[in-house]
Amino acid sequence: MSQEVNQGYFLLADLSGFTAFLADSELDHAKGIIEQVLEAIVANLTPTMTLGEVEGDAVYVYGVESQLSRGELIAELVEATYVAFRDLQKTMLRNATCPCRACQSIDELDLKFVIHFGEFALRDVAGKRAPIGSSVNVAHRLVKNHTPDATGWRAYVLISEQALAQMGLSPEGLHASEEKYEHLGNVRTFSNDLHQFYDEVIERRRVALTAEEAHAEIVHDFDMPPAIVWDWLNDPAKRTRWMQRSNWIPDVRIKGRTAPGAKNHCASFEVIEQILDWRPFDYYTVRFLGGPLSVLATVSLESLMPGTRVRWKMKVENRLPRWIGKLLSKALITRRMRLAQGFDSMTMMMHQV
């Protein structure tokens, strides 16, 4: 019987410094720390992607391309997972009261990611479906690469040329290399330093409306995880589908990415959307410019395990009495954007994928 061939992404999150950490630490404490870290990585990567397996010091997940049509989501998933990993590290170190080597050297662990794209088939192994194929082998082989030797990086994301093209991202600013594997050939790769990325996230100015600053707010609960909801909120093609009478298209991108300074355009609303702050899958803040009005919106996501609560806050920036700002913001939410109806439509569409 022939097996259905799929196209999709393969993502591996691999702990750096794992072997030395175990060798130099008390095994019982080290084991508990590793388990906690791996569980956190799995929680961040799934269920947006499907868990393949936890392989000692690595987490392997995969996803069908048709369910991950906005390739940038894969990059955001990696970056959000790395930020969560570093934040967890800091929390564990801050709360550590045990003087043992394991508990005091948590910061010696780091994390690298590999992303590849290609064909695979699903096979039942011991009652569990697992992807098989040459692309799966390439993804796993890419974990052993020459990027650390060439760059000195301990934490990085390595993306194969095939994955980068499928994700629609620019190679600008990335470290280019080529790996050679017996029986699999040459694989061109592009890598980015996650230490530098994390430092930039920490230093970046936060722009977010508080409940007190906002003129209006709508709250909606979805039964999907934050990464999926984030994708539907921000993919211009998906937003055009669920937001009534809209036609969103991407305008400006920063090195091919959605980031502060990027812009989207809605032809039907005659509005330019400027990205001011962008923190997947936590919140984003934008400025809508159209006609005489300048409007700020902060959209925050809260995990409900397993669902997501979205808070969409708006504020008119023009110098107007607050009561007028409230009336205008409420009208934008209820009559112009029709967000309540749009969110209901979005829920149905997410379940149809």
- Given helix and strand content, the structural type is alpha+beta
Judging by the overall fold, what is the CATH architecture of the largest domain?
A: 2-Layer Sandwich
- The gross shape turns out to be globular
Indicate the proportion of strand residues: 25-35%
The portion of residues assigned to helices is: 25-40%
Poorly predicted regions are: none
CATH topology of the largest domain: Alpha-Beta Plaits
Tally of structural domains: 2
Indicate the radius of gyration in whole angstroms. Answer: 22 Å
CATH superfamily of the largest domain: Nucleotide cyclase, GGDEF domain
Mean pLDDT, all residues: 92
Please explain how this structure is put together.
The chain has twelve helices and 15 strands. By secondary structure, the protein is of the alpha+beta class. It has helices spanning about 20-25, 25-45, 70-95, 100-105, 135-140, 145-150, 160-165, 195-205, 225-235, 235-240, 320-335, 340-350; strands at about 5-15, 50-55, 60-65, 110-125, 130, 155-160, 175-180, 185-195, 215-220, 250, 265, 270-280, 285-290, 295-305, 310-315. The model has no long low-confidence stretch (mean pLDDT about 90). It is globular and about 65 Å long. A hairpin with a 3-residue loop joins strand 7 and strand 8. The strands form two sheets. Strands 1, 2, 3, 4, 5, 6, 7 and 8 form an eight-stranded mixed beta sheet that branches. Strands 9-15-14-13-12-11-10 form a seven-stranded antiparallel beta sheet. The chain starts with a strand and ends with a helix. Helices cover about 35% and strands about 35% of the residues. The protein folds into two domains: about 5-200, Alpha-Beta Plaits; about 205-350, Alpha-D-Glucose-1,6-Bisphosphate, Chain A, domain 4 (2-Layer Sandwich).
